[in-house]
Amino acid sequence: MxxxxxxxxxxxxxxxCVYQVGFAQITDTVSAAISDSGIVKPVPDNxxxxxxxxxxxxxxxxxxxxxxxxxxxxxGKEVSVHWKRSVAxxxxxxxxxxxxxxxxxxxxxxxxxxxxxxxxxxxSVKLIKGVNLLYGIDLYLAYPLGALYAGSLAANYKTGQRAxxxxxxxxxxxxxxxxxxxxxxxxxxxxxxxxSNPNDPLGExxxxxxxxxxxxxxxxxxxxxxxxxxxxxxxxAYYAVAKVLAMEFNNYWIPYxxxxxxxxxxxxxxxxxxxxxxxxxxxxxVIGHGVVMGTRRLEKRRSEKIQRLSSKKKPRIEYSIIPxxxxxxxxxxxxxxx
Length: 338
Prior knowledge:
By secondary structure, the chain is mainly alpha-helical. Helix content is 62%, strand content 7%. It has eleven helices and four strands, in the order αααααααββααααββ.
């Protein structure tokens, strides 16, 4: 079992992880250059006197809410400012869609059979009776992120709190952007689970045609179902979280490797064309980057405002009284400066 997991990581794991890490590092190389020029830099925890636990937690939640408009602005900037790279990746996904049938057939026949492992099941989260809010492999993201927040809250560690909550925010954005908006617009059918056997019966929500888009239907809030293939919500959400953690902790290999291991643990269950997963991973990277940069810009503007206010000197009046004695008389001289 362990050997198969390592083999799995050696094949597709390397592809997805290195591909996503490469794209993420290219993104932040440009962002780092911008930061060095004085536009946006993360505000370290030790810049000012450390707040108490409640004040730190309050500031993190405040930034979480106030940065929402800036998050989407940063996502748009990431696409528009680096438009050449955006066009290149969009064209790459388009070419992959053109070749999706043989590529996905190879994925089903070789990759899915070679990468065949599952992580142990975790208890689901039920906030409402009979409704599973979080379940399956998603819990391998939700539980560690929750533990990260709890530990950071106890240790009064602002970066950990911000990383955890921004990760949950990135997951929420991924749900809205992919499940609610993109899947409803593109309405692509999921691939037949056995593309190599065209004589097998075909379910209503599956297709052997990779160009089977625009099968419009009502908005679907749950995963799976008719015309819900493009892009992959799980790939979007997972790599959005990886991007947030990578930027917050300045480490790419640990979050991207961990997320890839979790993602591949139910590869067959995703039931996607390969282009769905690649597009989802790229979209998630943009979402995660936008979330972190939105928070950083908000903190930078607040820090600059405080500096401006502290640098403004209050008007001062200095004066002096000097006695004066001369042959013409006795008096005083008053000198004042503003």
